[in-house]
Amino acid sequence: MKNWKVLCAMTLCAAVVLLGSGLASAADKPVTLVVSIRGLDNPYHANYKVGAEFLGKKLGLPVDTLSTEADSQKGIADIKAEVAKTGGNMVLNLDPNQAPDVVPIAKILEDAGVYWVNWWNKPDDVKVTNYKYWVAHITFDSVGTGYFNAKELFKTFKTPNKGKIIALQGLLANTPAIERFQGLQNALKEFPEVELVQWEGADWDRTKAYNATKAMLVAHPDIDGVWSANDEMAMGAIQALKEAGLAGKVKVNGTDGIPEIYDAIRDGFACSTVMQDSKYQAALGLAMSLAAKEGKLDVAKLDPKYRSFKIAGVEVTPANLEQVINDYVKNTPEYKLDVENLFDKFVEPAP
């Protein structure tokens, strides 16, 4: 019996030593920078990957890019698998497929102790401050974006600020789609001689926008402009306008800043876009999460306004087009991502 107790004690000691060495080994591994996006087919989303790799190269850290392919269940499952793969030694920058996805993802990350930043979508009743590892929810001033693009569109009418428009909405449950459309509504109130004769939801999709625009042109062939909630849908609308012989005569606006919209602005088919710099979004979200993980950013002591906030996009018109292309497309800005600069682009708190 004595020998058995000695053997058990020796086995337990060995197990503790092995476990301790395993933990030390896991801790010694570099932190993985992870981005979860809707897909790589849209240049806006693809630039999240570029931004993450920019930061990874700068810091010498590995990068993993997860793509939901517009499938919420896949997005949630992929994050869970990534947590298992890295042993939780990761930080995450998330652009969720839909707002409700945030709730199960938050639980996975809280349970694993993974710091993360969320962009664009979350349920209004979900509060970031109720979570320990959710560093921040960040979005753009989407109402301001919709308003700016509407005003730029109205200027292009044969009689400025007087005419008819049709509109293309994004996913109707998405917060940015709702807010950008609110910006359009605000502009319509300011310019009562502009009439919105019809709108359709096109789910951020180029093909759906093309079909929707073609159908609306049948009912309203005498429009003066097409308001679009993003660039992909704007490009679909431009194709429909080309086929109707109206491209250039009837202008379109966009939002996101994909390369094709810049060509459309240069060619006179589009009037404006607002660039959402997704390279910066990825780099910022990962830098914030990494600073929290390393103890450089005390999440619990952050002013609540910095836990959920809006930043400004880059407004693009023919006047500044070439400068924007040079600064953001041909080059990647040297983003300021030190702890003291993380909130430089803060505009106002977000819900």
Automatic annotation (TrEMBL):
Keyword Signal: yes
Localization: Cell envelope
GO CC, alphabetical: cell envelope
Stored InterPro entries: Peripla_BP_I, SBP_2_dom
Annotated Gene3D superfamilies: 3.40.50.2300
GO MF terms, alphabetically ordered: carbohydrate binding
Residues covered by the Periplasmic binding protein domain: 34-296
Top-level lineage group: Bacteria
Pfam families per record: Peripla_BP_4
Residues spanning the signal sequence: 1-26
Chief localization: other
UniProt keywords, alphabetically: Signal
Membership in a protein family: Belongs to the bacterial solute-binding protein 2 family.
Name assigned to this protein: Periplasmic binding protein domain-containing protein
Source organism: Candidatus Moduliflexus flocculans
